[in-house]
Amino acid sequence: MTRRPLTRGRPAELCAAALLAGMAALCAPAAARAHSDASSFGGGAGVHDHVVEGPASVPGYPARVMVDPRRVVNVTMRVNARITAVLSGPPGTRVSAGEPLARFTSAELDTLQTTYIETYRARDVMMAISMTGEEKLIEGRMNLRWRGLSEDDVVTIERTRTPVDEVTIFAPIDGYITQVNIGGDRIVNAGTRAGLFTASGSSVFQVADPGALLIEASVPIGIAEALRPGDTLSVSLPGAETAEAAAAVVDAVLPLVDPATPWARTVRLTPGEQIARALRPGQMVTLLPPDAAEQHVVREY
Q1: What is the b/e burial string over 145-162, where b = at least 16 CB atoms within 10 angstroms of the residue's CB?
Q2: 158 and 237 assigned to the same domain
């Protein structure tokens, strides 16, 4: 009987086939290899109960949140002082008029208060011998208010005949803090004093009113020319689930052309009150053109 020799090529062919099958599996689309929806485990085919991000091809234009400088109030210190506490939040914090922002002490202001107290004690004698007695009191009051004391502080001084040791800085208006220029236990130099009301002062806070926030974006000329003041566009905010929640109204299409981007025009928008609370000066957002806003968030059914 002739015995046939064992063939060693057969196992090698099987190994090669298995290797090719493994490589094909790796090259398959990720969505086909791993999809954790309920539809993969006996649920309704193709039904998704979660929000799916829209396609990357949806156009959007980077935009920056800005502050209208015409609607910003500077909080200025006009005496040399030491900051004892900063009570405000960081830039972007919403504040109400009269809300405490910081506290300070000032030897210079103590001297001014003491001078006013002596004048106030002698007011009856001053008015009896001088025609300008009342004017001196008014001038002294104005000086204290201008240097940082509140109306309540001045009333307290007149009632107790004692200087206010620690003075509170209050927010002048409702709005957003856009700058904080002081820290705790810091010395503030008010600048050169050349007269009663002429100290240059040092800006310690900036507060913008609620309508001061603007959005500016560079948009292609073709889209910008079709926009009109009053048009509503959608703005994509970081962390927002839907573009519809972030509406902004076109304020103007600026005629100025940036040499670096001659193909674009700057569009200025006013954010709606609902989303203005989520915006902060300097924040980057994405402006969506009208025909792309609906594609920003897509639901699959």
Answers
A1: eebbbbeebbeebeeeee
A2: no
Evaluated on CA atoms 206, 210, 215, 216, the torsion sign reads negative
Number of domains in the chain: 2
How far CA 112 is from CA of 135, 149, 163, in Å, comes to 17, 11, 9
Task: Report yes or no on 286 lying in a domain.
Answer: yes
Cα 61 to the center of its chain, rounded Å: 19
What's the per-residue H, E or C state across 10-30? HHHHHHHHHHHHHHHHHHCCH
pLDDT, one tens digit per residue, over 102-139 is: 999 999 999 999 999 998 998 888 877 877 778 888 99
Q: What is the 3-state secondary structure (H, E, C) of 127-151?
A: HHHCCCHHHHHHHHHHHHHHHCCCH
d(CA 73, CA 173): 8
CB 256 within 8 A of CB 221: no
CB 113 within 8 A of CB 154: no
- What gap in Å lies between CA 268 and CA 250, rounded to an integer? 6
> Which residue type, as a one-letter code, is found at position 211?
G
pTM, whole model, 2 decimals? 0.65
Q: Could you tell me the residue range of the domain that residue 155 belongs to?
A: 105-166
pLDDT tens-digit readout, 229-282: 999 998 888 765 544 446 899 999 998 888 888 899 999 999 987 777 778 888
Instruction: Please report where in the chains the tokens 């001297």 appear, as a residue.
Output: 111
